[in-house]
Design brief:
Elements: E1 5-8, E2 15-24, E3 35-39, E4 57-60, E5 75-78, E6 94-95, E7 97-104, E8 111-117, E9 150-157, E10 165-166, E11 170-172, H1 174-177, E12 180-183, E13 195-198, E14 200-204, E15 210-215, E16 221-227, E17 232-237, E18 242-245, E19 250-263, E20 279-288, E21 295-296, E22 312-313, E23 319-324, E24 328-332, E25 340-342, E26 350-357, E27 377-383
Parallel strand pairs: 2-9
Antiparallel strand pairs: 1-27, 2-5, 2-6, 3-4, 3-7, 7-8, 10-16, 11-14, 12-13, 13-25, 14-24, 15-16, 15-23, 16-17, 18-19, 19-20, 19-26, 21-24, 22-23, 26-27
Length: 384
């Protein structure tokens, strides 16, 4: 095998303006005076495990009493080049790429959000709203409305008195994707004579733990969901499929990750436009032997001690139990069967390696329930 050239996990390193709001998850109303802190995780290198976080970039959602709020109550604005109005004091910059955002407000449970910031020029903010009433938003060094400078997002918080369901939130760890090789030894699966083998780590960054129950002799499965008070509720998952593979002697969870390559062209060189790149090669669909906790992804999370911490399978009854705790990560190394994309016939060049966890099927159904599906895709640039 030979190793390909890694071009970088984050194609967009520049910073950008950010606008958003913190809301009550039950009522949808905006929350004034909420604390929002952005920290960039270090996703460089070819590794996995407890992520290292950068320094904090913080802001508050505006209150009616703030000078210059002018109708922007509950919103926050991160824009170092905003107008010098009396209320324009909380201004800074958030970098592009993955960010872990910590959001808190007295009377609400704090939450963490992992999202990939891909700045565009489409933030729809009225010119007369909030502290930036003196002119259009966003601004850029070279003038207003240049491309790739803006992001709009929302952060819902649950009141601490609410016995809400704490769901998992799955992402693909970009660090693991850098552990890849081009296999030209003729040992590729599915008839391919040349393939890209890649390690994939799927991390749970949600408030709640992922716990799956099922049986290899019956279709479907169940997701056990934890509430705030520790009680549970079981929800049927019609798109879950556990299959017993006699050649392996154990069960597999179907359709856990999709692996794709996209050829980089002139109109999709940046990650914000990568979805416009054509899919090439023979995409891979990764089944999972078992969802389990191979590593700690973010040690600031507190998994439920009553969660399913390992995979169990009773061959006599077919009963299955498996899961990934909050802040934990499951890693499948590139040497395992199925961790590949067929690349027969592809020319040397630049590609987006794209991996999606918990993908939707043709009917839009996901394998499991999550709190956020917008962060399920991770991409890095590769060349071979």
């Amino acid at each position: 095998m030979r190793r390909g050239l890694i071009l970088g996990a984050l194609a967009l390193a520049a910073g950008g303006c950010t606008y958003g709001w913190v809301s009550d998850a039950n009522s949808g109303s905006k929350i004034e005076g909420a604390y929002v802190s952005y920290r960039a995780p270090d996703f460089s290198g070819r590794n996995w495990g407890d992520v290292v976080l950068g320094g904090s970039v913080w802001v508050w959602s505006w209150q009616a009493s703030d000078p210059g709020a002018s109708g922007g109550e509950g919103n926050f604005y991160l824009n170092p080049l905003g107008q010098a109005s009396p209320g324009d004091t909380r201004t800074t910059m958030v970098m592009g790429g993955w960010q872990r955002t910590y959001v808190s407000k007295f009377g609400y449970d704090t939450r963490r959000f992992y999202r990939n910031h891909l700045f565009t020029s489409t933030c729809d903010i009225p010119n007369n709203q909030g502290p930036y009433s003196g002119g259009p938003y966003p601004y850029n060094i070279n003038g207003p409305y240049t491309s790739s400078v803006c992001l709009s997002e929302q952060f819902p918080l649950y009141p601490s008195t609410t016995n809400y369901v704490k769901d998992p939130d799955m992402i693909v760890d970009p660090r693991t994707l850098r552990d890849y090789e081009i296999d030209i030894a003729g040992a590729c699966e599915e008839g391919a004579s040349r393939c890209l083998r890649v390690s994939v780590g799927t991390a749970n960054v949600g408030d709640g733990d992922l716990w799956l129950l099922g049986n290899s002799s019956t279709p479907g499965g169940t997701q056990r969901r934890f509430r705030r008070d520790g009680s549970t509720t079981d929800v049927a998952l019609p798109n879950v499929a556990f299959l017993y593979h006699p050649e392996h002697g154990h069960i597999h969870l179907q359709n856990w990750t999709n692996l794709r390559l996209r050829a980089v062209t002139s109109n999709c060189r940046e990650e914000v436009s990568a979805a416009n790149c054509p899919v090439v090669g023979n995409p891979g669909k990764k089944i999972s032997f078992c969802l389990t906790e191979g590593a700690t992804f973010d040690s600031s999370y507190s998994p439920n001690p009553n969660r399913a911490v390992s995979c169990t399978f009773d061959p006599a009854t077919g009963a299955i139990q498996q899961g990934i705790g909050s802040g934990k990560e499951d890693v499948y190394s590139k040497g395992l069967p199925g961790q590949m994309i067929g690349i027969d016939g592809l020319p040397s060049g630049e590609y987006w390696l794209e991996v999606e966890v918990n993908p939707a099927n043709e009917n839009g159904q996901r394998t499991i329930l999550e709190s956020d599906y917008s962060n399920n895709i991770t991409r890095i640039k590769v060349a071979f």
